[in-house]
Amino acid sequence: MSEKIWLSSPHMGEKEQQFVKEAFDTNWIAPLGPHVNGFESDLQEYNNIQHVAALMSGTSALHLGLILLGVGTGDIVLCQSFTFSASANPIVYQGAEPVFIDSEQDTWNMDPIALRTAIEDLIEQGKKHRLKAIVPVHLYGMPAKMDEIMAISKEFGIPVLEDAAEALGSHINGKKCGTFGDLGVYSFNGNKIITTSGGGALASNNKELIEKARFLSTQARDVAPHYQHSNIGYNYRLSNVLAGIGRGQMQVLGERIEQRRAMFEFYTEIFSNISGVNLLKEPKGYFSNRWLTTILVDSKKTGGVSREVIRLQLEQDNIESRPLWKPMHLQPVYENSRFYGSGVCEMLFENGLCLPSSSNLDEEDRNRIKNNIKLIFSNAL
Ligand SMILES: *Cc1c(COP(=O)(O)O)cnc(C)c1O
């Protein structure tokens, strides 16, 4: 069996171990310390945002984000349906109800038209006071239509919690993903474009919100010599050891984005002569970090080659690929949730595939991928 080619694997630079060693040498082995502060400043500077709290995961960042926006029992959060379950689950942690919104064709992210329809419909049902947050997602690194979504947010006075877990470094006309909404979320899980093994962050230009995030994420201790609590707290802060990895990874983020984008170019070339397979283009002014390269397969135009045919062929040669996210409104756990849209995300799920996109794939790995794809389509012709 050939060596496994992963969809997205960790890729360390040169400085990570040095930062971790420094944490050991100075005995900062705790969920606070100079690397946590340093990692936060790196993220602030890179994203051009004023305040960042480094946390244990993207999921904990989403959870705290909802708490900070006042989402509680019986409230409604408008969430992109086409996403990973971690975008939606924290809504349920808060006892609130997710209402799922379809995607649009240009970015595959939250459709502003379906979002408006949902809000107007829910207001008509007398639920205006329960609409507490909008959660758009920048899937696979492609920015969502943030100008349109922010305009709707302002019009109806509903804050935006932006899930940029997959989109560190992506931007629209230079404005980074995760900085459009009232709060933005990043993830540094093992499969993301840079990683701390596990980690996340919450970003905002609102100082009060991020100070409160730091307070709540460290057990909400009041100022007192004993342990005194006036709020329910969480243990969500990032470890100083892991933040050391993050500081090293921030130094190579630019390079990682170039490498991921080179993988996108690699696939663009392979599929350029194959009809029925399409890659998602960047709308004008949009820049994707191309965390994962994704394709849409129209088996009516490929001579019968479907998404599954490609996935199974790659699997035979120990190459990982994966269908696009299964929409939340189709998940058994959310089967009773409401959905607004026309089924764009269902079509994406049925016909889409994520291809190996790691930044550390070498010439040999790429040749193996290419030969397998060529084989599939030469058999089909
Ligand atoms: C990875 C991911 C998350 C969760 O981040 P973790 O750090 O794994 O908790 C949330 N949303 C999306 C879209 C993700 O891809």
Structure description:
The chain is an alpha/beta fold and 381 residues long. The chain has two domains: 16-250, Aspartate Aminotransferase, domain 2 (3-Layer(aba) Sandwich); 253-380, Aspartate Aminotransferase, domain 1, CATH 3.90.1150.10. Helices cover 37% and strands 14% of the residues. The protein is built from twelve helices and 15 strands. The protein has helices spanning 16-25, 34-47, 58-68, 89-93, 112-124, 146-156, 207-217, 240-250, 253-271, 307-316, 344-351, 363-380, and strands spanning 51-55, 76-80, 97-101, 131-135, 161-163, 171-172, 175-176, 183-187, 200-204, 277-279, 286-287, 293-297, 322-323, 339-340, 352-355. The chain has a four-stranded mixed β-sheet with strand order 1-9-8-5, sandwiched between helices. Strands 4-2-3-14 form a four-stranded parallel β-sheet. The chain has a four-stranded antiparallel β-sheet with strand order 10-12-15-13. Helix 10 (307-316) packs across helix 12. The longest helix has 19 residues, at 253-271. 51% of the residues are buried. The mean pLDDT is 97.
Summary tags:
single chain, 381 residues, alpha/beta, Aspartate Aminotransferase, domain 2, Aspartate Aminotransferase, domain 1, 2 domains, four-stranded mixed beta sheet, four-stranded parallel beta sheet, 12 helices, 15 strands, globular, binds pyridoxal-5'-phosphate
